[in-house]
Amino acid sequence: MWPIISLKHLKSLLPDLKYAYSGFRAWLICLSLPVFLGACGKNEETFRQESFVFGTRVEISIYGEKTARAETAAQAVLQRFDELHHKLHAWQDSELDRLNTAFAAGGRKTPVDSELAFILKDAQNFSIEGDELFNPAIGNLIRLWGFHADQPQTAIPDDAAITSQLDAKPSMRNVHVENGMAWSDNPAVRIDLGGYAKGYALDEAARLLKQQGIHNALINIGGNIMAMGMHGNRAWKVGIQHPRKPGIIASLELHDGEAVGTSGDYQRYFMNNGKRYCHLINPRTGQPADGMQSVTILVSGEHAGTRSDSLSKPLFIGGPDQLENMAARLNVRHVLAIDADGTVLVSPTMEKQLHWDDAGQAHSLLKAVR
Hints:
By secondary structure, this protein is of the alpha+beta class. The chain is built from twelve helices and 17 strands.
């Protein structure tokens, strides 16, 4: 079993952390998943560009480049993000929305460009790899729970409506892509790539920046973060958001090609009779997953951005009982999870990467339960 530690024994971490300006501080602490720390101090060599894409804040930080060069590179990335937003949006007019309409109308074959064809196959592979706990085909269930809107609803769907969706068994296995055409043999399939698109965008951002000769950067899409190169003579540093109160619970360093992804129940959710209902739906029960508060993973290598986003979903939805086995199945070695009771579950390799506020206290408690 992995080491565990109750959150009640941890102090608020890095309490005296200062950011470059107060407005940005509020976003990092309150809204993002991991919190970007490394370039938050005043540093004239770090160029930053912010925007709002994929329904969340985006920040691109580029180190050691002239302002004009960095700005040109950042704008190219933001333009690419905007293209992906209009291609993959789950409920507004987009290429994906039009494809979903064709699926629902009897599954007629519909032309798709090479990128969307790749994305569909890639998301299908991630779904199968994660035992379909990550199932982008359940868009109708996500819509039923009110999460296909900028602001979630507060009503709980009727049991019969949920059962009807479960009985239809939408799966990425129903989706077929061949010779530039896509179709589904199940009209209940409605694809929602909310658990994939930000990670894919991270990989695209890194690709574009490298094309333009940028070697040192940090890309943050609503807390999904990828590092390129270094921040001067040190690694980029990020913090992991506390899921129940402002601030972070730990920090870690990100090196070239590493990405951090978090799935949590604290950004998109609604409360009903004192119970929290989050946007991460368990495709087996039709209910919002409620076994975890958050799961953060650290990955590296090829397609690290996409993997950091997609692979955190089955770990979160599977809950604490399946966490260790699912992480082994997915070959995810660096995991920090907080279950519904506030207990921290840490893989041994991730434990070595984390920096707690009171390191002696945290590590003594971790070792005590081994």
